[in-house]
Amino acid sequence: MTARVAVLISGSGSNLQALLEACADEAFPAEIVKVVSNRPGVYGLERAAAAGVRTEVIDHKAYEGRAPFEAALRGSLEEAAPDVICLAGFMRVLAADFVRAFEGRMLNIHPSLLPAFRGLHTHRQALEAGVKIAGCTVHVVTPALDDGPIVGQAAVPVLPGDTEDSLAARILKAEHRLYPAALRAFVEKRAAEAEGASLFVV
């Protein structure tokens, strides 16, 4: 069974592109059924359209506060009926009630080796801490920021003379490899668990 995936974006969608290319393989256990952006006119919407994926813009600026925006976003996602929701550069912090509505099936990619360097400016944090290894993490989204079970990680070296930009570029390449692999692992694990549970249904 192929898992239905919705992707939330806010920008250029380079991680979305990696997921689109993975899902284009018939052997991949997931398909992207909808891409939603909270910002109009971003390049990620063009990437999705070029791949024949349905898109929608739910501009957070058009709503009076977080609650009505998230109500519209939730309605859009429920209409798409995804098995998995992937946050791919989605730059909005989601309220606990929203996260709980999709509990256990929402993934995020974060540009650090969690639990290190949560929040923003992760590359700056890594450089200021003097670490020799940085990287990225795909994790299940929980109400706590950049928390939740880790699905997969990829490490990259921090090189002498690295700047925030050079380290970010190196980590981004790792993200493009990690996210599709983590999505596959997550979907296959859920399928195996569901199959195992069905063996005990009386």
Automatic annotation (TrEMBL):
It catalyses: N(1)-(5-phospho-beta-D-ribosyl)glycinamide + (6R)-10-formyltetrahydrofolate = N(2)-formyl-N(1)-(5-phospho-beta-D-ribosyl)glycinamide + (6S)-5,6,7,8-tetrahydrofolate + H(+). It comes from the Bacteria. It holds the Pfam family Formyl_trans_N. Pathway: Purine metabolism; IMP biosynthesis via de novo pathway; N(2)-formyl-N(1)-(5-phospho-D-ribosyl)glycinamide from N(1)-(5-phospho-D-ribosyl)glycinamide (10-formyl THF route): step 1/1. Keywords: Purine biosynthesis, Transferase. (6R)-10-formyltetrahydrofolate binds at residues 66, 108. One of its GO terms (biological process) is 'de novo' IMP biosynthetic process. CDD domains: FMT_core_GART. GO terms for cellular component: cytosol. Residues 4-183 form the Formyl transferase N-terminal domain. The record marks 146 as: Raises pKa of active site His. N(1)-(5-phospho-beta-D-ribosyl)glycinamide binds at residues 13-15. It is an enzyme of class 2 (transferase). One of its GO terms (molecular function) is phosphoribosylglycinamide formyltransferase activity. The active site is at residue 110. InterPro entries: Formyl_transf_N, Formyl_transf_N_sf, GART. Its EC number is 2.1.2.2. NCBIfam families: PurN. Catalyzes the transfer of a formyl group from 10-formyltetrahydrofolate to 5-phospho-ribosyl-glycinamide (GAR), producing 5-phospho-ribosyl-N-formylglycinamide (FGAR) and tetrahydrofolate. Belongs to the GART family. This is Phosphoribosylglycinamide formyltransferase. The lineage of its organism: Bacteria, Pseudomonadati, Pseudomonadota, Alphaproteobacteria, Parvularculales.
